[in-house]
Amino acid sequence: MNLLLTVQIVQRTLVKKIILQFVEEPIEITDREVKRLKRSRIPLVKVRWNSKRGPEFTWEREDQFRKKYPHLFSKTGPSSSAAS
């Protein structure tokens, strides 16, 4: 007489915690300005952010912001050199 043992493997489901975080990202560039100092000029852009507290705007250095978010600059209106 042969005994057949059946082993059932019970799969354990691992429950993963999903932590949702709201990430503020820039939406658009709304304005431009040049800050004039004694010996230099600093181009600035006014940026609208998607904040969970409502619309939020900050002034950022254009050169640094262009490196980090180049896609926002391709959406902006025509430049002064293209208006000829």
Automatic annotation (TrEMBL):
Protein name from the UniProt record: Reverse transcriptase domain-containing protein
Organism of provenance: Tanacetum coccineum
